[in-house]
Design a protein that fits this description.
- The complex is a heterodimer of chains A (266) and B (555).
- The longest helix of chain A has 16 residues.
- In chain A, 37% of the residues are buried.
- By secondary structure, chain A is α+β, with helices and mostly antiparallel strands.
- A 5-stranded mixed beta sheet of chain A has the order 2-1-5-3-4, covered by helices on one side.
- Chain A folds into 2 domains: 87 residues, Roll (Ubiquitin-like (UB roll)); 129 residues, Orthogonal Bundle (Fumarate Reductase Iron-sulfur Protein, Chain B, domain 2), CATH 1.10.1060.
- Chain B is globular, with a radius of gyration of 24 Å.
- Classes of the chains: A alpha+beta (266), B alpha+beta (555).
């Protein structure tokens, strides 16, 4: 069979999508998009990422979880005739006709190291690590660029006011893609500051779990070692018996209020 | 965009049955769960793992004779990316105490613990540091932290969920270390959902007897990854991170000890030799092989690399025939197809419903059972819901969450999922979601013991690449726990091994030469080159126009 014959047989549109390979869905038409200025025809319903793969791009950078949570595929785009810049994740944003797009898979940002065990959990520690925080002019471009709709200016402002808890909570959905930092005229690494605030909050400001501390002490004292040894050696029949006889904690019982009838294995 | 008028009509049926179902849930009444016998029946008939088509016997290596999916078997019988005869093993590019292959949750935890024990560490990772399935784990992490719970029940739930096929010492290690892991993460500054007094908010999951699931919003894995990665970045003096440089082959020394790896810089296409006294494989799973054409929840790099490299070094694996299909992957809208809907949605009380808006299963069966029940409802009973793109799904009634836990609960408990659907015009606190099983997790993997050691001295394993912890079926929240438990154990034990005064002899790739010879002797024709590193999503049309052969670069 000649090369041409093979190509001919391959040149039919597949009917079913398998795995993650993009197809031209039945009934969908193609639209023009401009990938880094160059025109391609892509199926209208696809995400930017799948559309780029559809026309033949293979990512090394610029693709990660493909589910909107890792921050590997930040993308900036314009629409034809529109002066505005738009931002999104390539794996989450659907292509539009005459979209001009470029990916920004990495953007340099200053990160300051610290010791979580010895750092003083006060705002001054954050200021000392990131004095550029006060270069913020509240222009709000960071928030406009955020693909996760995080109120970036909100947590930066909270941090400027010394409110670590508020900064931690507002910044929680951050995926550290770096689009905020790419737009900042104060050259602030917002997402690293948010990370610092969250770690200070999680370690020092949120109260520690006392029941967990107690359990850790019990484990360290060897309380469960014998029980676990017995389980490792237990026959399948006995394991099944234990499995079937389990009591189930009621769904709506508040944590820490319910106790089982059988307490010998606690 | 939102739902089409046809789908909206079907949603009316869900709304019609909802008040009575919410009443039921309030009274702690459930659709009856299956007995162990009934579980076996529905699995045998409807679970993709149990069907024989597409499987075959492995012809070479430590698992010779095992029956595996064809795509998996082919990678085990693959040939190396490098040609051993072309490599100068005297020319070492990096030297370190511990080399961690993989920069996800397991690898990073391993690096942190090894560095704490005084070891110099290199993390080599295929994509960015943190690009992993860890970041995608949404619902939570298990640990018996409550008074009504104990490692005993964590063990029993886990081994029962795995149909009693789990490797017992690994389950015991998991149940034992789980509270220690949570405490470690808390000390690193992870933001768990807690009550105002600091008590962890814990929830049920499929197959649980106690509420044991700790979480951070609906991005628990992402929060874990952010925290451990940030901590690794604080330790630049001890931990060197090399991104976009996957390992493609393990190095042994003349005595058969593990002695490093060959890395491949995907951007410059250079190879590097790393000499290391101990190596930890933490490369993750194989979702991107798209077994049986299923969509996957996995990240871009999940291509079974670690299993392949370990195999050539003589480390076999178990349960690789077993793939977890998460019962609730998105089937609508098309842009989100394959993405995971965390089990937490059902843990919070949402029912799974057919096209009549009726329940047909207990919503919190172990995952394989739940998946098989969904497939049966759609395929055998014809009660699935068709999407405009020809996919089939079942309803997941998320609006129940606000009704059971108060207005705003969906947004608070599932912020990322809420945004993801809102982008496409669907408010999941008002309308249900359409779901169907999706390829989620590699249950099997390389053989280790409870100290995370393989049979090759100096070679350790942790995370999804490892097999046996979950047996043939994993429970929710045990994967995040296993990456931390075995990540930490592998890091500590690798450092202790290094500190025991390991002397490496001359580097060797004889194991690779020997493996290639075995393939040749058996007569395996055209073995694929692996690790494959990244999936290829080129369309057939584009591939055909590439004229691969004439334009291929010299090898």
């Amino acid at each position: 069979m000649s090369e041409t014959d093979t190509n001919q047989s391959k040149l039919k549109i597949p009917k079913m999508a398998t795995g993650d390979r993009a197809i031209l869905p039945v009934g969908a038409s193609t639209i023009p998009v401009y990938i880094m200025g160059k025109k391609y025809e892509v199926p209208e319903t696809l995400t930017i990422m799948k559309a780029m793969e559809f026309v033949g791009f293979k990512f090394i950078r610029g693709a990660g979880c493909r589910g909107g949570i890792c921050g590997a595929c930040p993308t900036v785009y314009r629409r034809a005739g529109d002066y505005k810049l738009y931002f999104g994740l390539a794996c989450q944003t659907v292509v539009e006709p005459d979209m001009y797009l470029a990916q920004i898979p990495f953007y340099p940002a200053n990160r300051a190291s610290f010791d979580i065990d010895t750092i003083d959990p006060v705002a001054e520690s954050v200021y000392a690590l990131y004095p550029e925080l006060f270069r913020c002019v509240a222009c709000n471009l960071c928030t406009k660029a955020c693909p996760m709709d995080v109120d970036v200016l909100g947590y930066i402002s909270a941090m400027k006011q010394g409110n670590i808890a508020k900064a931690a909570e507002i910044s929680f959905d951050c995926i550290q893609c770096g689009l905020c930092a790419s737009r900042c005229m104060g050259e602030i690494p917002q997402y690293h500051i948010g990370q610092l605030a969250r770690r200070l909050y999680g370690r020092y400001i949120q109260p520690n779990a006392e029941h967990l501390k107690k359990r850790v002490e019990e484990i360290d004292s060897g309380k469960y070692d014998k029980l676990l040894d017995e389980l490792v050696k237990m026959s399948k029949e006995d394991l099944e018996k234990h499995y079937i006889e389990r009591e189930r904690e009621p769904d709506l019982a508040p944590s820490g209020t319910w106790m089982p009838q059988d307490t010998q294995y606690l | 965009m939102g739902y089409t008028p046809e789908l909206e009509k079907l949603i009316k049926k869900v709304e019609a049955t909802r008040p009575a179902r919410v009443e039921m849930a309030r009274k702690n009444e459930h659709f009856p769960a299956l007995s162990l016998k009934e579980r076996g029946e529905v699995l045998n008939e409807y679970h993709p793992d149990c069907q024989n088509e597409g499987k075959r016997s492995v012809k070479a290596g430590p698992n010779k004779g095992d029956i595996l999916q064809d795509g998996v078997a082919r990678l085990l019988e693959s040939k190396p990316v490098v040609k051993p005869e072309n490599i100068d093993l005297a020319k070492v590019d990096y030297e370190t105490d511990v080399l961690v292959i993989g920069g996800g949750g397991a690898g990073t935890s391993a690096a942190l613990m090894a560095s704490e024990k005084g070891a110099k560490v290199i993390i080599a990772t295929k994509l960015r540091h943190g690009d992993s399935n860890t970041v995608m784990a949404e619902g939570g992490i298990q640990a018996a932290s409550q008074e009504c719970d104990s490692p005993f029940y964590h063990y029993i739930d886990t081994i029962g969920g795995g149909h009693f096929t789990n490797q017992p010492d690994l389950v015991a290690a998991l149940a034992h270390d789980a509270p220690l892991s949570i405490s470690w993460l808390e000390s690193l500054g992870m933001m768990f959902i807690k009550n105002s007094d600091g008590r962890m908010v814990v929830r049920h999951f499929g197959g649980s007897s106690r509420k044991r699931l700790h979480s951070a919003g609906d991005m628990t894995g992402a929060e874990i990854m952010r925290v451990v990665r940030d901590e690794a970045r604080n330790r630049q003096d001890k931990i060197t991170i090399i991104e976009f440089a996957p390992a493609v082959e393990l190095l042994l020394d003349e005595e058969g000890k593990c002695a490093g790896a060959i890395l491949y810089n995907m951007e410059t296409r250079e190879f590097y030799l790393v000499k290391a006294k101990a190596v930890i494989i933490a490369t993750g799973g194989f979702g991107r092989l798209h077994i049986k054409g299923f969509a996957t929840t996995n990240h871009y790099g999940a291509t079974m690399d670690g299993v392949v490299m370990a195999y050539r070094a003589g480390v076999g694996n178990k349960y690789l025939f077993s793939t977890q299909y998460h019962p609730t992957g998105v089937v609508y809208p098309e842009q989100n197809v394959g993405l995971l809907i965390t089990e937490k949605v059902r843990g919070l009380g949402s029912h799974v419903l057919n096209s009549d808006g009726e329940q047909f299963c207990f919503p919190l069966e172990p995952r394989d059972v739940e998946s098989a029940e969904l497939i049966r409802e759609a395929m055998e009973r014809g009660k699935g819901i068709m999407t405009p793109t020809g996919r089939v799904g079942l309803w997941l009634d998320s609006p129940m969450i606000d009704l059971l836990h108060g207005e705003g609960a969906v947004k608070k408990e599932l912020p990322a999922k809420f945004i993801q659907f809102q982008r496409h015009g669907i408010d999941i606190s008002k309308d249900p979601m359409l779901v169907y099983p999706t390829l989620h997790y590699q249950n099997g993997g390389i053989n280790i013991n409870a100290d995370a050691e393989t049979l090759v001295p100096g070679l350790f394993g942790a995370g999804e690449v490892v097999g046996g912890i979950h047996g043939e079926n994993r429970l929710m929240g045990n994967s995040l726990q296993d990456i931390i438990t075995f990540g930490r154990r592998s890091g500590i034990n690798a450092a202790e091994y290094v500190n025991s005064d390991v002397k490496l002899k001359k580097l060797s790739l004889d194991h690779v030469v020997k493996f290639e010879k075995e393939l040749e002797d058996i007569g395996i024709k055209n073995p694929v080159r692996a690790p494959i590193l990244l999936p290829d999503y080129s369309t057939e049309e584009v591939s055909a126009r590439r004229w691969n052969e004439p334009l291929k670069e010299s090898e």
